[in-house]
Amino acid sequence: MNIRRHFGAQVSKFFQRLVYATSQARYEEALGILEKDYPNGKEAVAYIKAIDSRKFSRYALVLPRYGRMTSNAVECMNAAFLKLREYAARRLLFEVWIYVMRSFYERQTIAEGSIDLLTEYAKGRFSEFECEYGRYVMYNADDDNALVQTNGGVDQWIVRRHPRLSCSCYEPQEMQWPCIHVMSWCKGKGEDYLPYVDRIYFQKSLLACYSQAIPPVTE
Ligand SMILES: [Zn+2]
Question: How close is the Cα of 33 to the center of ligand 1, in Å?
Answer without folding.
Answer: 24
